[in-house]
Amino acid sequence: MTPPSRVAAAVAVLASAFTLSIAASAAARAGDASFQQTFPVASTLCARVAANTEGKHLKRFASQAVADCTLLLGRFGGAQASVLALRAAVTPQLAADRAAIAGACPSGPQRALCRRTHLREDPAIDALRRQLKVATRSYYRTIELARERFWNAIHALPGERRLRADAPIAQLPS
After folding, report:
1. What is the pTM assigned to this prediction?
2. Domains of the chain, residue spans
3. Which candidate, 60, 22, 62, 33, places its Cα nearest to that of 45?
Protein backbone atom coordinates (compact mmCIF):
# COMPACT_ATOMS: atom_id res chain seq x y z
CA MET A 1 0.00 0.00 0.00
CA THR A 2 1.50 3.34 -0.98
CA PRO A 3 2.01 6.05 1.67
CA PRO A 4 -0.73 8.37 0.29
CA SER A 5 -3.28 5.55 0.28
CA ARG A 6 -2.21 4.60 3.82
CA VAL A 7 -2.82 8.15 4.95
CA ALA A 8 -6.21 8.10 3.25
CA ALA A 9 -6.99 4.78 4.94
CA ALA A 10 -5.92 6.18 8.30
CA VAL A 11 -8.11 9.22 7.86
CA ALA A 12 -11.04 7.04 6.78
CA VAL A 13 -10.68 4.66 9.72
CA LEU A 14 -10.34 7.45 12.26
CA ALA A 15 -13.17 9.49 10.75
CA SER A 16 -15.46 6.45 10.73
CA ALA A 17 -14.56 5.56 14.28
CA PHE A 18 -15.14 9.14 15.41
CA THR A 19 -18.46 9.32 13.58
CA LEU A 20 -19.65 6.06 15.13
CA SER A 21 -18.50 6.91 18.62
CA ILE A 22 -21.17 7.91 21.05
CA ALA A 23 -20.34 10.27 23.87
CA ALA A 24 -21.08 7.99 26.78
CA SER A 25 -18.54 7.64 29.53
CA ALA A 26 -20.38 4.72 31.06
CA ALA A 27 -22.02 2.55 28.45
CA ALA A 28 -25.14 1.20 30.08
CA ARG A 29 -26.93 -0.50 27.19
CA ALA A 30 -26.26 -2.35 23.97
CA GLY A 31 -24.87 -0.01 21.33
CA ASP A 32 -23.90 2.80 23.71
CA ALA A 33 -20.16 2.05 23.67
CA SER A 34 -17.97 3.45 20.90
CA PHE A 35 -15.79 1.30 18.64
CA GLN A 36 -12.77 2.13 20.79
CA GLN A 37 -14.59 1.19 24.00
CA THR A 38 -15.93 -2.05 22.54
CA PHE A 39 -12.69 -3.18 20.89
CA PRO A 40 -9.84 -1.39 22.71
CA VAL A 41 -7.04 -3.65 21.44
CA ALA A 42 -8.36 -3.97 17.89
CA SER A 43 -9.02 -0.23 17.57
CA THR A 44 -5.47 0.54 18.69
CA LEU A 45 -4.06 -2.00 16.24
CA CYS A 46 -6.19 -0.61 13.42
CA ALA A 47 -5.11 2.95 14.19
CA ARG A 48 -1.45 1.90 14.18
CA VAL A 49 -1.83 0.07 10.86
CA ALA A 50 -3.66 3.01 9.32
CA ALA A 51 -0.96 5.41 10.57
CA ASN A 52 1.81 3.10 9.28
CA THR A 53 3.28 2.65 12.77
CA GLU A 54 2.54 -1.06 13.17
CA GLY A 55 5.25 -3.60 14.07
CA LYS A 56 7.68 -4.95 11.50
CA HIS A 57 5.92 -8.32 11.24
CA LEU A 58 2.58 -6.73 10.47
CA LYS A 59 4.00 -4.20 7.97
CA ARG A 60 4.21 -6.87 5.27
CA PHE A 61 0.51 -7.61 5.67
CA ALA A 62 -0.74 -4.07 6.19
CA SER A 63 -3.23 -4.21 3.32
CA GLN A 64 -4.82 -7.38 4.75
CA ALA A 65 -4.90 -5.81 8.23
CA VAL A 66 -6.57 -2.66 6.85
CA ALA A 67 -9.19 -4.84 5.15
CA ASP A 68 -9.80 -6.76 8.38
CA CYS A 69 -10.08 -3.49 10.33
CA THR A 70 -12.53 -2.08 7.80
CA LEU A 71 -14.65 -5.22 8.02
CA LEU A 72 -14.69 -5.12 11.84
CA LEU A 73 -15.60 -1.44 11.87
CA GLY A 74 -18.35 -1.99 9.28
CA ARG A 75 -19.93 -4.87 11.19
CA PHE A 76 -19.76 -2.94 14.44
CA GLY A 77 -21.27 0.17 12.84
CA GLY A 78 -24.12 -1.81 11.29
CA ALA A 79 -24.97 -3.63 14.51
CA GLN A 80 -24.77 -0.42 16.52
CA ALA A 81 -26.95 1.51 14.08
CA SER A 82 -29.60 -1.24 14.12
CA VAL A 83 -29.89 -1.49 17.88
CA LEU A 84 -29.85 2.29 18.37
CA ALA A 85 -32.48 2.85 15.68
CA LEU A 86 -34.80 0.25 17.19
CA ARG A 87 -34.30 1.68 20.67
CA ALA A 88 -35.05 5.19 19.38
CA ALA A 89 -38.27 3.94 17.79
CA VAL A 90 -39.43 1.81 20.73
CA THR A 91 -38.59 4.09 23.67
CA PRO A 92 -41.27 6.73 22.94
CA GLN A 93 -43.88 4.01 22.44
CA LEU A 94 -42.95 2.41 25.76
CA ALA A 95 -43.12 5.77 27.49
CA ALA A 96 -46.57 6.48 26.00
CA ASP A 97 -47.91 3.07 27.02
CA ARG A 98 -46.56 3.47 30.56
CA ALA A 99 -48.00 6.99 30.77
CA ALA A 100 -51.43 5.66 29.74
CA ILE A 101 -51.28 3.13 32.56
CA ALA A 102 -50.07 5.72 35.07
CA GLY A 103 -52.88 8.10 34.04
CA ALA A 104 -55.56 5.46 34.36
CA CYS A 105 -54.27 3.98 37.60
CA PRO A 106 -54.00 6.52 40.41
CA SER A 107 -52.75 5.18 43.72
CA GLY A 108 -55.41 3.39 45.68
CA PRO A 109 -57.72 0.52 44.81
CA GLN A 110 -57.77 -0.78 41.24
CA ARG A 111 -60.63 0.63 39.22
CA ALA A 112 -62.26 -0.75 36.12
CA LEU A 113 -60.54 1.83 33.89
CA CYS A 114 -57.17 0.83 35.32
CA ARG A 115 -57.81 -2.88 34.68
CA ARG A 116 -58.93 -2.19 31.10
CA THR A 117 -55.89 0.00 30.48
CA HIS A 118 -53.59 -2.73 31.77
CA LEU A 119 -55.32 -5.30 29.56
CA ARG A 120 -54.77 -3.04 26.56
CA GLU A 121 -51.27 -1.70 27.28
CA ASP A 122 -49.47 -4.61 28.97
CA PRO A 123 -49.34 -6.78 25.81
CA ALA A 124 -48.00 -3.81 23.82
CA ILE A 125 -45.33 -3.14 26.45
CA ASP A 126 -44.34 -6.82 26.48
CA ALA A 127 -44.07 -6.88 22.68
CA LEU A 128 -41.88 -3.77 22.67
CA ARG A 129 -39.64 -5.23 25.37
CA ARG A 130 -39.29 -8.44 23.32
CA GLN A 131 -38.25 -6.38 20.28
CA LEU A 132 -35.56 -4.66 22.36
CA LYS A 133 -34.36 -7.99 23.73
CA VAL A 134 -34.10 -9.52 20.23
CA ALA A 135 -32.23 -6.46 18.93
CA THR A 136 -29.86 -6.56 21.91
CA ARG A 137 -29.08 -10.25 21.40
CA SER A 138 -28.55 -9.69 17.69
CA TYR A 139 -26.17 -6.79 18.42
CA TYR A 140 -24.05 -8.85 20.80
CA ARG A 141 -23.98 -11.89 18.51
CA THR A 142 -22.92 -9.72 15.58
CA ILE A 143 -20.12 -7.87 17.35
CA GLU A 144 -18.81 -10.98 19.09
CA LEU A 145 -18.71 -12.87 15.78
CA ALA A 146 -16.97 -9.88 14.15
CA ARG A 147 -14.42 -9.79 17.00
CA GLU A 148 -13.68 -13.51 16.64
CA ARG A 149 -13.33 -13.30 12.85
CA PHE A 150 -11.09 -10.23 13.08
CA TRP A 151 -8.70 -11.82 15.56
CA ASN A 152 -8.69 -15.15 13.72
CA ALA A 153 -7.69 -13.29 10.56
CA ILE A 154 -4.99 -11.26 12.33
CA HIS A 155 -3.61 -14.29 14.18
CA ALA A 156 -3.52 -16.23 10.89
CA LEU A 157 -0.97 -13.74 9.51
CA PRO A 158 2.61 -15.03 9.85
CA GLY A 159 4.25 -13.75 13.02
CA GLU A 160 1.06 -12.26 14.49
CA ARG A 161 -0.11 -15.12 16.71
CA ARG A 162 1.50 -13.36 19.68
CA LEU A 163 -0.86 -10.36 19.54
CA ARG A 164 -3.27 -10.12 22.46
CA ALA A 165 -6.89 -10.18 21.34
CA ASP A 166 -9.78 -8.20 22.76
CA ALA A 167 -11.67 -9.96 25.53
CA PRO A 168 -15.10 -11.37 24.68
CA ILE A 169 -17.82 -8.72 24.75
CA ALA A 170 -19.79 -8.55 28.00
CA GLN A 171 -23.52 -8.47 27.37
CA LEU A 172 -25.24 -5.47 28.89
CA PRO A 173 -29.00 -5.15 29.36
CA SER A 174 -31.05 -3.47 26.66
Report:
1. 0.74
2. 3-156
3. 62
